[in-house]
Specification:
Blueprint lengths: L1 E6 L3 E8 L2 E9 L6 H14 L9 E6 L5 H12 L4 E2 L9 E2 L9 H13 L4 E6 L2 E7 L4 E9 L1 H11 L19 H28 L4 E6 L2 H4 L8 E3 L3 H13 L1
Parallel strand pairs: 1-4, 4-5, 6-9, 7-10, 10-11
Antiparallel strand pairs: 1-2, 2-3, 7-8, 8-9
Helix pairs in contact: 1-2, 3-7
């Protein structure tokens, strides 16, 4: 069993993975002020509550889009398990053919998601990783990562509306029953949730036109479960463990 860590701008997702399957999942806030000792204590407490024996961890791997937190979490994991984590990036084999101007710009989370998507879903494939930003990766018919798009995430859109307008307050993002909101809160929820779903439907249509073929669309990350039912594209699927499965596969290639 290994630990897989996905360090994002808003949250850190930690999974205990055995043979490619996620057995336990913990989520911590991404706090730049926390020390390695503080993260060590938090992970240890959550592990105890979930009856996870950290001494049984045989390795770890990290995907991060927050460079300042990467060494902090790596130290915390090494203190807990005695294992120095692998970090997805240059020098680590992923098996992914990245056809971008600068392959090193691609975030480790999208690398891992693409690796898992190629193994699990029909190609071509569009991977949507939802967090503070909505990152979209495109994999062509031959399994090459050919590029992507980056859009504001739902939480960022909601907080921006609340901060930059005088009469719109921050709201929780439960899916509304109707597209047309009857009050300010439901109007904001509808605009953010249905707007995100419509954006993805439209972008996928344009991506398919450029690829010249229909694509599988895989959503993962925070809020993905709410968006999948709202999308109208027929091949949209939810895979909450996509990044973690990809990290497992990259770990097995490098151990």
């Amino acid at each position: 069993m290994i630990l897989t860590l996905d360090i994002g701008n808003a949250a850190i997702v930690i999974c205990c993975v055995d043979r490619g399957e996620c057995l336990r999942r913990f989520v911590l806030s991404s706090n730049l002020d926390r020390t390695a000792d503080e993260y060590t204590a938090l992970i240890s407490l959550l592990s105890q509550q979930a009856d996870v024996e950290l001494f049984a961890i045989s390795g770890a791997i990290v995907a991060s889009v927050v460079p300042r937190l990467t060494p902090v979490l790596c130290r915390a994991v090494e203190q807990l398990t005695g294992q120095a984590p692998l970090v997805v990036g240059p020098g680590l084999k992923s098996g992914l053919n990245i056809r971008m101007d600068d392959p090193t710009e691609l975030g480790g989370d999208l690398v891992a998601a693409a690796v898992a998507a190629i193994e699990r879903y029909p190609l071509p494939c569009v991977v949507v990783d939802m967090g503070k930003a909505t990152a979209i990766g495109v994999i062509d018919q031959r399994g090459a990562y050919v590029g992507g798009l980056i859009c504001p995430g739902m939480a960022l859109s909601s907080s921006s509306l609340a901060e930059e307008t005088s009469q719109l307050r921050d709201v929780s993002l439960e899916p509304p029953q109707h597209t047309i909101g009857k009050n300010t809160r439901d109007s904001m929820r509808s605009g953010i949730l249905y707007g995100t779903a419509a954006m993805l439907d439209g972008l996928v249509t344009r991506i398919e036109e450029e690829l010249g073929a229909p694509a599988s669309v895989i959503l993962t990350g925070d809020g993905a479960a709410d968006i999948v039912p709202l999308c109208r594209h027929e091949n949209v699927m939810l895979d909450e463990d996509l990044v973690m499965r990809g990290l497992w596969r990259i770990y097995t290639k490098n151990r």
